[in-house]
Amino acid sequence: MSEVIDNKYVVFKLDKEYYGIPINKVISIEKMQETTRIPNGPIHVKGVINLRGEVICLIDLRLKLDMEPKEIDNNSRIIIVSNDEIVAGLIVDSSSEVMEIARENIDNPPTSSENENLSYIQGIGKVKDRLIILLELSKVLEY
Questions:
Q1: DSSP state letters, 107-119
Q2: Which residues contact 30 (CB under 8 A, 6 or more apart)?
Q3: CATH of the domain at 123
Q4: Cα separation, 34 vs 78, whole angstroms
Q5: I want to staple 44 with a disulfide (CB 3.0 to 4.6 A). Which of 4, 5, 36, 64 is the partner?
Q6: Which residues form the CheW-like domain (predicted)?
Q7: What is the extent of the structural domain holding 105?
Q8: Which of 57, 67, 113 is nearest to 87 (CA)?
């Protein structure tokens, strides 16, 4: 049973690229809402939200991955994720779909000693004509 869950991913977009997070790490996908800023927080931490009585820290995934900032719009979503008892919200440009990616269609991430952002990548999924960057959630949630 866990074999099936292991290769299902929630796929979303940042800019023109597709990214994926294992579905078993995703709690919910929410529309954007008012955030409370945290003074002196890291630039990629957009603040916190109150989601059904739980305070959730929001991470702007674009900023975390050193991408150009983008204004929040009607397509923007918060993907609530949980990893090793850390619960956080990832702000993404748009949520796309749930996709199954067979293990044989997942390549190892590119390697480079100079680019620490590559540590955020668990692998590259190939589905039809699309490449999906599979994120290493434990690294993404590090401050």
A1: EPPP--SS-GGGG
A2: 51, 77, 78, 79, 80, 89
A3: 2.40.50.180
A4: 12
A5: 64
A6: 6-143
A7: 2-140
A8: 57
77-83/86-92 β-pairing:
antiparallel
Task: List CB contacts of 136: < 8 A, sequence separation 6 or more.
Answer: 119, 120, 121, 122
Q: How many angstroms separate the CA atoms of 86 and 129, rounded?
A: 34
For the chain, how many structural domains are there in total?
1
Q: For the full predicted model, state whether its pTM sits above 0.85.
A: yes
Whole-number Å distance between alpha carbons of 77 and 32: 6
CA angle 37, 41, 43 (to 5 degrees): 95
